Automatic annotation (TrEMBL):
<dbReference type="InterPro" id="IPR043129">
    <property type="entry name" value="ATPase_NBD"/>
</dbReference>
<protein>
    <submittedName>
        <fullName>8872_t:CDS:1</fullName>
    </submittedName>
</protein>
Amino acid sequence: MNFDYHTYNLWAGNAYGKFKTNTVLRYDSEFKEVLAWGALGLAKNPGRRRSESVSKPVELFKLALGNLPEDLKPELPPKLHLQTEQRHKRAITDYLQKMGMLLPLFKPKKVMRECAFKANLISKVDSDRLQFTTERKAAAIYCITKKSLRDNFLKDSDTSFLIVDCGGGTVDLTTRKLLSNCELGEVTERSGDFCGSTFIDKEFLKFLGKIVGDGAIKLLREKHYGEMQYMIQEFCSNIKIPYTGDDQFTYDFDLDVEICPVLKQYVLGEAKTSLEEKEWIVEINNNDVKEMFDPIVERIIRLIKVQLENSHTCSAIFMVGGFSESKYLQNRVQTEFQDKVAHILVPPEPTAAVVRGAVIYGLRMNPSFYNIQDPSIKPIIKNRILKFTYGVEVGMISRFSTLAKRGTTTEVNQKFNGTFVPLFAYQSAMKFRIFITQKHEVECCLEEGVELLGELLVDLPDIDLGLDRKVKFSLCFGEEEIKASAVNSTNGQNYHTVFNLDTES
């Protein structure tokens, strides 16, 4: 079934028809009030006088939700919050209040619910009006529900296809299988890396640093962050986005008047003399841009290779996300994999693929809420491959008792069971401590890489039965949560708790 929806494309500060706006906030100097957000909060024309009451833009705060290496973590202003771990939450909450809703690359749902509640988007933290899905999953849903793509490239059930979601910060991949009734199965474990388009911007700054001096770039970042971002926006508009890999490509980057005149004061010595002779024009040729792109593109190609090796068969590659519009990236992927995959495609308006897929996902999850009467509509995710091994702690030596192994294909709402008895005859309760790890084989809960997911306490009132008191414990993997349940076999008493499925997102 096709759903009707409208994709917003009138973001302030962006060109008409652009489906995304920047995840950026600009505060006053004391960080008490948001003065601008989105594209308006980022770009700063160097010809305009800077107001001392305005702070530099706050950006990349979504990345604080993920497990980034230290050198990639965003540095957020101390004035946002006294506690470092609360700064990204403050920024996310403020952004939600302005925009309405955020689709992060990483999804610690507890944090996002807290921020959405503080932004008055939901009436209570655990409201079922707020649902989450992953960007990879949403992109896959968009591709299989768009009739032109499904009919031409995904005609048969059990067809496998690879989603490559190329965003600004990350590139995320997963291989899915199209099942009956537009349901999705998972073929491989998801993979990803920090190799989105913003890392090309960093390569551009490195390139420029070789010409003007790294010290000049450092001072520009520290003292004129808005002007630096304006310069990057000019690079994106005139070089990064239109670049195709053409050997004849050249561009004259004017640092004097048009783009970033404030940089000149920090350029010293031979670099200054050389640029003065060239009237502050930086000539950028094909090899220069290629060297900016290739370290990032090569990482994406390696990710795709691993997915194809693990899936064995793949009928199509769908490239979505803003970076997928790069003709150079498209050409490199096409050249590398055209003999291995029949169809390598960029869907219409790939930047909007994720948000459109998320809308369809929400409608299919709750058709009655949206007054859609169609008995054929079912939840769209049929199975997944577990990314972690799950188990419980048993015995005096914290032995890891495995319930579900990493790499297992599990149906939605499938249960993994185990039967346990108390350690001591006099126990009046049994605590199940649930652990997870990325290892396939694990013996002890104290091993490196094993983390506590949560706990469930079960009463054991019939002490006279000693050790003969069986408890059936199970983990059930739903679409967006894990339900831990325990049944006391002696008296039939049930216990359960729910964990968000961040681990498998």
